[in-house]
Amino acid sequence: MCGIAGICCLAGPLRPDFRELLNAVSMSLAVRGPDAHGSWVSKGGGAAMVHRRLSILDVDARSDQPMRSADGRYALAFNGEIYNYAELRAELERRGRTFSTTGDTEVLLQMYIEYGTAMLNRLRGMYAFAIWDEAERKLVLARDPFGIKPLYYATGEGQFHFASQVRALCSIPGLDLRKEPAGHVGFLVWGSVPEPYTLYRGIRCLPSGSYLTVANGRVASPKKFASPAQEFACFDAAEMPKSEGESYERLHDALKESVRMHLIADVPVSLFLSAGLDSGMVTALAAEAHGGLEGLTLGFDRMKGTLADETQTAAKVAKQYGVRHHARYVEKKTFSAHRQRLLERMDQPTVDGVNTYFVSLLARERGYKVALSGLGGDELFGGYPSFQQVPALVRRLGAWTQFPRLGAGLRAIAAPVLSKMTSPKYASLFEYGGSWGGAYLLRRGLFMPWELTGILGAEMAREGWEELASIREMNALASGVGDHKMTGQADFLRVSALEMHYYMRTQLLRDTDWAGMAHSLEIRVPLVDMVLLRQIAALRASPFPPKKPQIVKALQTPLPEEVANREKSGFVAPVREWMQEEAEGAPRRGLRNWALYIYRYFDGLHSGEVAPRYAA
Fold it and tell me: How confident is the model at residue 612, as a pLDDT?
């Protein structure tokens, strides 16, 4: 886990002040990589890169970056981990390549030299990287299929810039920092900024599973090389299990392999352990593969000793699998004391990530650089209410898609009344509920599109919503998953694809990155893995799909009964209350007050009313 940034020229030489600019950008990324700082400038003067390192694999200085090839032609700046690097290294050595380090960075560099961008589908891991080819004067950026690691880019004054954080780019003069309507609308609708947008017109997020090339003064459009959602449509029917027993046996093997791969490190690894099924499952599988682990649990003083206190159940899970356990209770005053730093580290606005921020703080205080999280299990195994609610809405209200104006008219009449009594979403049931995209919007949306005029103004709200085209894109994604009616799994697979593509990718994974990096902690997510997804796609679409309540069948040693039968609790209540209290203002449903508070803070950054700070 690291921070990367760089610049290359599109017209003429690099700007005269590029060293000062990159140094400032590097300082803003310092918390992402406190162990080492490196810089590199191409011999021809066409590009330069900086790297901040959090040393986890091959912690020796020989693996510091930017890393250059032996002949000096290539240079690499890399953020993330390649879990199958040992296997790839052995393959490269059989092809005659030699290595001077033992980590994954040199493997990644030599894979590119050997195969070019064709290597991307061979990588198992989380990554965002930049490679410069001096001979072709070409820059390549790439990002992992799920978008676990962030990467942003911008052009201005004849230069191309990239960095691991949006705020790092905001300090560069000459970029277009006008408000991007789609980014602002996207945050208020979804609670996070959907890629490829940011809050700024001139700064874009490289889409997950894509690569981009810069050559001959031209920035090419990103090219997609992998799509997790489409994996559901590509499985081989011959690989479907013949029985429930086979299904869970294969699931266990696939899960254990992924957890084992994610434990590879040259430093100690910890576990985020809650009272939930997903973190318990990861803990169980990690204990099968590796001894001497420690589970870390976040508790809240307001819940201490009550049935809602997760620390007690987590302690039982730890004991069940021989894992050391450490819990930390957080008070309201702790949240208030960290609020400013939390906002500064957020990078892009989001309504979530607070829990991860504090458990990451606990991990770092315990001396860890790496932690495993159970994120992704709900999307894989149907742990959200959306798996029941979205298909039910589509079935009941599907006929209304033929009468869009009537649905909008009913909403206009009902909204003023319903907004005073209950969630404003109910006013849009007939307007949106009949399509997959619309039903998902009703389930996950924060503010409805028609509410945004009062926050952003009519023109910005309209322009942003039209640019996002959220419902059209979600409908296309759901329909493109494939027809699995023969096994009765079509609805499940569509909702799973929507949850992975939107909620998990643009909120949960992004929050995991910034909240962990706020404390120089690498958070690994073994349930968010392309190889794992491919291995269980046929299981998931079969007549014997692994289901969340029965997932314990995939474990050699069962979870404690209270974990196996525990209902999903969602956002921890005290944190929600604290955020509402900090946000102030008239009470609003859900996280709306907190969302507006966050939005005003970031809007203040944009207007210069709030000065950004980057504490080391």
Answer: 46
Residue 589 neighbours by CB distance under 10 Å: 12
Number of H helices, E strands in the chain: 25, 18
Residue linked to tokens 């195969």: 115
612 three-state secondary structure: coil
State which H helix or E strand residue 37 sits in: strand 36-41
Residue 235 — very low, low, confident or very high, per pLDDT cuts 50/70/90?
A: confident
- CA 202 to CA 206: how far, in whole Å? 13
Q: Are 168 and 23 in contact (CB under 8 A)?
A: no
Is residue 78 helix, strand or coil? strand
pTM, 2 dp: 0.94
CA atoms within 13 A on the CB side of 265: 23
**How many residues would you count in the chain?**
616
Asked whether the bond before 612 is cis by omega within 30 degrees of 0, the reply is no
Give me the chain's average pLDDT, please: 89
For β-strands 2-9 and 47-53, DSSP reports them as: antiparallel
What is the SS3 assignment for 464?
helix
432 vs 303: CA distance, rounded Å: 38
Quickly list H helices, 321-421. 332-345, 354-365, 377-381, 386-397, 404-421
Interior angle at CA 594, CA 592 and CA 596, nearest 5: 70
DSSP annotation string for 328-343: EEE-HHHHHHHHHHHH
Alpha helices in 116-180, H assignment, sequence order: 166-170
What letter does residue 554 receive in the DSSP assignment? G
| CA–CA distance, 171 with 429 (Å, rounded to integer) | 43
CA distance 598 to 188: 10
CA angle 536, 541, 543 (to 5 degrees): 110
Q: What angle do CA 297, 298, 304 make, to 5 degrees?
A: 110
Domains of the chain, with CATH numbers?
Answer: 2-226 (3.60.20.10), 231-383+495-607 (3.40.50.620)
Amino acid at 506: T
Structure tokens at 594: 């907190």
The rounded Cα 536 to chain-centroid distance in angstroms is: 21
Predicted pLDDT of residue 420: 59
CA atoms within 13 A on the CB side of 333: 0
- Which pair of tokens denotes residue 411? 């909403």
The encoded tokens of residue 74 equal: 């290539």
> 129 with 202: CB under 8 angstroms?
no
Quick count: other Cβ atoms within 10 Å of Cβ 370?
A: 24
Report the share of the chain in percent with pLDDT over 90. Answer: 67
